[in-house]
Amino acid sequence: MGVLAVGTHAMPAGTRFERHTHRTHQLAWASSGTLAVVAGARTWVLPTTRALWIPAGVPHEVTSASHSTMTSLYLPAATEPVPAPAWDRPRPITVSPLLAELIRYLDDQALSAARRARGEALVLDLLEPVAVTTLDTPLPADPRAREVAQALLDDPACPHSLDAWGRRVGASGRTLARLFLSGTGMSFGRWRTLARLQAALPALAAGEPVSRVARAVGYETVSAFVAAFRRETGVTPGAYFRTRR
Protein backbone atom coordinates (compact mmCIF):
# COMPACT_ATOMS: atom_id res chain seq x y z
CA MET A 1 0.00 0.00 0.00
CA GLY A 2 1.18 3.51 -0.77
CA VAL A 3 0.70 6.83 0.96
CA LEU A 4 -1.89 8.18 -1.48
CA ALA A 5 -5.33 6.66 -1.99
CA VAL A 6 -7.43 7.36 -5.09
CA GLY A 7 -11.22 7.50 -5.04
CA THR A 8 -13.53 8.06 -8.03
CA HIS A 9 -17.20 9.02 -7.84
CA ALA A 10 -19.63 9.42 -10.74
CA MET A 11 -21.77 12.50 -10.09
CA PRO A 12 -24.89 12.87 -12.25
CA ALA A 13 -26.22 16.41 -12.65
CA GLY A 14 -27.57 17.72 -9.37
CA THR A 15 -25.54 15.39 -7.15
CA ARG A 16 -24.57 16.91 -3.82
CA PHE A 17 -22.22 15.57 -1.18
CA GLU A 18 -23.47 17.35 1.91
CA ARG A 19 -21.14 19.24 4.22
CA HIS A 20 -18.58 16.85 5.72
CA THR A 21 -14.95 16.54 6.77
CA HIS A 22 -12.13 14.03 6.24
CA ARG A 23 -9.39 12.90 8.56
CA THR A 24 -7.13 12.95 5.54
CA HIS A 25 -6.09 15.73 3.19
CA GLN A 26 -8.02 15.60 -0.08
CA LEU A 27 -7.25 16.75 -3.60
CA ALA A 28 -10.67 17.02 -5.27
CA TRP A 29 -10.50 16.98 -9.07
CA ALA A 30 -13.19 16.97 -11.75
CA SER A 31 -11.71 14.38 -14.08
CA SER A 32 -14.75 15.09 -16.27
CA GLY A 33 -17.37 17.83 -16.14
CA THR A 34 -17.33 20.57 -13.53
CA LEU A 35 -17.50 20.52 -9.73
CA ALA A 36 -18.42 23.23 -7.26
CA VAL A 37 -16.75 22.93 -3.87
CA VAL A 38 -17.95 25.09 -0.98
CA ALA A 39 -15.62 25.45 1.99
CA GLY A 40 -16.26 28.13 4.57
CA ALA A 41 -17.60 31.23 2.84
CA ARG A 42 -15.91 30.49 -0.48
CA THR A 43 -16.96 28.54 -3.56
CA TRP A 44 -14.54 27.07 -6.05
CA VAL A 45 -15.86 26.03 -9.48
CA LEU A 46 -13.46 23.46 -10.87
CA PRO A 47 -13.08 22.53 -14.54
CA THR A 48 -10.90 19.56 -15.50
CA THR A 49 -7.79 21.75 -15.45
CA ARG A 50 -8.17 22.63 -11.76
CA ALA A 51 -8.33 20.69 -8.52
CA LEU A 52 -8.79 21.85 -4.95
CA TRP A 53 -6.55 20.93 -2.05
CA ILE A 54 -8.77 20.50 1.03
CA PRO A 55 -6.82 20.13 4.29
CA ALA A 56 -7.91 17.49 6.77
CA GLY A 57 -10.72 18.63 9.04
CA VAL A 58 -11.99 21.44 6.79
CA PRO A 59 -15.80 21.21 6.36
CA HIS A 60 -16.82 21.25 2.70
CA GLU A 61 -19.55 20.19 0.28
CA VAL A 62 -19.36 19.21 -3.37
CA THR A 63 -22.01 19.59 -6.07
CA SER A 64 -22.19 18.94 -9.81
CA ALA A 65 -24.39 21.03 -12.10
CA SER A 66 -23.76 18.67 -15.03
CA HIS A 67 -22.78 15.02 -15.28
CA SER A 68 -19.28 14.91 -13.83
CA THR A 69 -16.72 12.58 -12.33
CA MET A 70 -14.85 13.46 -9.16
CA THR A 71 -11.48 11.78 -8.76
CA SER A 72 -9.79 12.48 -5.44
CA LEU A 73 -6.44 11.84 -3.88
CA TYR A 74 -6.43 11.23 -0.13
CA LEU A 75 -3.29 11.77 1.93
CA PRO A 76 -2.89 11.00 5.66
CA ALA A 77 -2.78 14.19 7.67
CA ALA A 78 0.40 13.02 9.40
CA THR A 79 2.26 13.28 6.07
CA GLU A 80 3.20 16.79 5.05
CA PRO A 81 3.89 17.06 1.32
CA VAL A 82 4.17 20.85 1.49
CA PRO A 83 5.25 23.28 4.19
CA ALA A 84 2.75 24.99 6.47
CA PRO A 85 1.12 27.47 6.57
CA ALA A 86 0.57 27.80 2.82
CA TRP A 87 -1.43 24.57 2.74
CA ASP A 88 -3.46 24.96 5.91
CA ARG A 89 -6.49 26.13 3.92
CA PRO A 90 -8.10 25.15 0.59
CA ARG A 91 -5.93 25.98 -2.40
CA PRO A 92 -6.68 25.61 -6.12
CA ILE A 93 -4.14 23.43 -7.92
CA THR A 94 -3.24 23.31 -11.60
CA VAL A 95 -3.92 19.88 -13.08
CA SER A 96 -1.31 19.52 -15.81
CA PRO A 97 -1.48 16.70 -18.37
CA LEU A 98 1.24 14.87 -16.44
CA LEU A 99 -0.53 15.20 -13.09
CA ALA A 100 -3.81 13.98 -14.60
CA GLU A 101 -2.15 10.87 -16.01
CA LEU A 102 -0.29 10.19 -12.77
CA ILE A 103 -3.51 10.30 -10.76
CA ARG A 104 -5.00 7.72 -13.10
CA TYR A 105 -1.77 5.72 -12.92
CA LEU A 106 -1.96 5.53 -9.12
CA ASP A 107 -5.50 4.17 -9.36
CA ASP A 108 -4.00 0.92 -10.69
CA GLN A 109 -4.13 -1.54 -7.80
CA ALA A 110 -1.63 -3.83 -9.55
CA LEU A 111 1.26 -1.37 -9.24
CA SER A 112 4.31 -2.64 -7.43
CA ALA A 113 5.30 -0.89 -4.20
CA ALA A 114 8.38 0.62 -5.85
CA ARG A 115 6.47 2.01 -8.84
CA ARG A 116 3.73 3.39 -6.60
CA ALA A 117 6.27 5.13 -4.39
CA ARG A 118 7.93 6.78 -7.39
CA GLY A 119 4.57 7.86 -8.80
CA GLU A 120 3.43 9.28 -5.47
CA ALA A 121 6.63 11.26 -5.04
CA LEU A 122 6.18 12.82 -8.48
CA VAL A 123 2.51 13.62 -7.83
CA LEU A 124 3.37 15.48 -4.63
CA ASP A 125 6.11 17.34 -6.46
CA LEU A 126 3.60 18.47 -9.11
CA LEU A 127 1.06 19.98 -6.71
CA GLU A 128 1.41 23.67 -7.49
CA PRO A 129 -1.08 26.26 -6.21
CA VAL A 130 -2.47 28.55 -8.87
CA ALA A 131 -3.60 32.12 -8.33
CA VAL A 132 -7.24 31.88 -9.38
CA THR A 133 -9.91 34.32 -8.29
CA THR A 134 -12.84 32.36 -6.93
CA LEU A 135 -16.25 33.33 -8.24
CA ASP A 136 -17.76 33.69 -4.79
CA THR A 137 -21.39 34.76 -4.50
CA PRO A 138 -22.05 35.02 -0.76
CA LEU A 139 -25.66 35.61 0.20
CA PRO A 140 -26.45 38.77 2.15
CA ALA A 141 -28.07 38.28 5.54
CA ASP A 142 -30.86 40.82 5.11
CA PRO A 143 -33.96 38.93 3.90
CA ARG A 144 -34.78 41.51 1.21
CA ALA A 145 -31.31 41.47 -0.34
CA ARG A 146 -31.15 37.71 0.12
CA GLU A 147 -34.38 37.28 -1.85
CA VAL A 148 -32.90 39.29 -4.71
CA ALA A 149 -29.65 37.32 -4.61
CA GLN A 150 -31.43 33.97 -4.64
CA ALA A 151 -33.64 35.05 -7.54
CA LEU A 152 -30.55 35.99 -9.54
CA LEU A 153 -28.86 32.69 -8.76
CA ASP A 154 -31.99 30.97 -10.09
CA ASP A 155 -32.16 33.22 -13.15
CA PRO A 156 -28.81 34.97 -13.71
CA ALA A 157 -29.97 36.48 -17.01
CA CYS A 158 -32.69 38.53 -15.31
CA PRO A 159 -32.08 42.17 -16.35
CA HIS A 160 -33.98 43.90 -13.52
CA SER A 161 -32.38 47.01 -12.06
CA LEU A 162 -31.98 47.53 -8.32
CA ASP A 163 -34.98 49.87 -8.35
CA ALA A 164 -37.08 47.16 -9.99
CA TRP A 165 -35.92 44.60 -7.46
CA GLY A 166 -36.66 47.08 -4.71
CA ARG A 167 -40.28 47.37 -5.78
CA ARG A 168 -40.53 43.59 -5.62
CA VAL A 169 -39.03 43.14 -2.15
CA GLY A 170 -40.14 46.35 -0.48
CA ALA A 171 -36.93 48.38 -0.35
CA SER A 172 -35.48 51.25 -2.33
CA GLY A 173 -32.75 50.63 -4.84
CA ARG A 174 -30.37 52.64 -2.69
CA THR A 175 -31.16 50.48 0.34
CA LEU A 176 -30.56 47.29 -1.63
CA ALA A 177 -27.24 48.66 -2.90
CA ARG A 178 -26.17 49.34 0.68
CA LEU A 179 -27.34 45.91 1.87
CA PHE A 180 -25.40 44.12 -0.89
CA LEU A 181 -22.25 46.06 -0.10
CA SER A 182 -22.47 45.46 3.65
CA GLY A 183 -23.71 41.87 3.34
CA THR A 184 -21.39 40.54 0.64
CA GLY A 185 -18.45 42.94 0.60
CA MET A 186 -19.09 43.91 -3.01
CA SER A 187 -21.40 46.08 -5.05
CA PHE A 188 -24.62 44.69 -6.47
CA GLY A 189 -23.23 44.99 -10.00
CA ARG A 190 -20.13 42.96 -9.25
CA TRP A 191 -22.12 40.38 -7.30
CA ARG A 192 -24.45 39.89 -10.27
CA THR A 193 -21.47 39.59 -12.62
CA LEU A 194 -19.96 36.84 -10.46
CA ALA A 195 -23.30 35.04 -10.28
CA ARG A 196 -23.55 35.11 -14.07
CA LEU A 197 -20.01 33.88 -14.57
CA GLN A 198 -20.45 31.12 -12.01
CA ALA A 199 -23.62 29.99 -13.80
CA ALA A 200 -21.74 29.97 -17.11
CA LEU A 201 -18.92 27.66 -16.01
CA PRO A 202 -20.70 24.28 -16.23
CA ALA A 203 -21.96 25.03 -19.76
CA LEU A 204 -18.52 26.23 -20.86
CA ALA A 205 -16.94 23.10 -19.39
CA ALA A 206 -19.43 21.00 -21.35
CA GLY A 207 -18.19 22.61 -24.57
CA GLU A 208 -21.15 24.82 -25.38
CA PRO A 209 -20.37 27.79 -27.65
CA VAL A 210 -19.36 30.93 -25.80
CA SER A 211 -21.96 32.95 -27.71
CA ARG A 212 -24.79 30.71 -26.50
CA VAL A 213 -23.53 30.67 -22.94
CA ALA A 214 -23.11 34.46 -22.88
CA ARG A 215 -26.71 35.00 -23.95
CA ALA A 216 -28.00 32.40 -21.49
CA VAL A 217 -26.51 34.23 -18.52
CA GLY A 218 -27.60 37.71 -19.57
CA TYR A 219 -24.91 39.19 -21.82
CA GLU A 220 -25.97 40.82 -25.07
CA THR A 221 -22.56 40.39 -26.71
CA VAL A 222 -19.79 37.82 -26.54
CA SER A 223 -17.20 40.56 -26.15
CA ALA A 224 -18.90 41.88 -23.00
CA PHE A 225 -19.01 38.37 -21.52
CA VAL A 226 -15.36 37.64 -22.35
CA ALA A 227 -14.30 41.01 -20.92
CA ALA A 228 -16.14 40.30 -17.66
CA PHE A 229 -14.68 36.80 -17.49
CA ARG A 230 -11.14 38.07 -18.02
CA ARG A 231 -11.62 40.87 -15.50
CA GLU A 232 -12.69 38.45 -12.76
CA THR A 233 -10.47 35.43 -13.47
CA GLY A 234 -7.50 36.99 -15.24
CA VAL A 235 -7.93 34.80 -18.33
CA THR A 236 -10.37 34.28 -21.18
CA PRO A 237 -12.93 31.44 -21.07
CA GLY A 238 -10.85 29.54 -23.61
CA ALA A 239 -7.71 29.74 -21.47
CA TYR A 240 -9.60 28.84 -18.29
CA PHE A 241 -10.98 25.67 -19.86
CA ARG A 242 -8.00 24.72 -21.98
CA THR A 243 -7.74 20.95 -21.55
CA ARG A 244 -5.28 18.21 -22.31
CA ARG A 245 -7.30 17.23 -25.35
Give a structural overview.
This protein has two domains: 5-126, Jelly Rolls (Sandwich); 143-240, Homeodomain-like (Arc Repressor Mutant, subunit A). Helix 1 runs antiparallel to helix 2 and helix 4 (162-169) packs across helix 5 (173-184). The model is unreliable at 81-86 (pLDDT under 50). Strand 4 and strand 5 (42-46) form a beta hairpin. The strands form two sheets. The chain has a five-stranded antiparallel β-sheet with strand order 1-8-3-6-9, with helices on one face. Strands 2-7-4-5 form a four-stranded antiparallel β-sheet, covered by helices on one side. By secondary structure, the protein is of the alpha+beta class. It has nine helices and nine strands.
Here the CATH topology of the largest domain equals Jelly Rolls
Query: Which residues sit in consecutive blocks of at least 5 with pLDDT less than 50?
Result: 81-86
Query: At CATH's second level, what is the architecture of the largest domain?
Result: Sandwich
Q: What structural category do the secondary elements indicate?
A: alpha+beta
Question: What order do the SSEs take from the amino end to the carboxyl end, as H and E?
Answer: EEEEEEEEEHHHHHHHHH
* CATH top level label of the largest domain: Mainly Beta
Tally the helices: what do you get?
9
**Given the C-alpha coordinates, what overall shape results?**
elongated
Overall tally of domains: 2
Chain-averaged pLDDT: 88
Rounded to the nearest angstrom, the distance between the terminal CA atoms is 32 Å
Tell me the fraction of residues in β-strands, as a range: 15-25%
Protein name: Helix-turn-helix transcriptional regulator
Pfam family, one: AraC_binding
InterPro entries: AraC-bd, Homeodomain-like_sf, HTH_AraC, HTH_AraC-typ_CS, RmlC-like_jellyroll, RmlC_Cupin_sf
Keywords: DNA-binding, Transcription, Transcription regulation
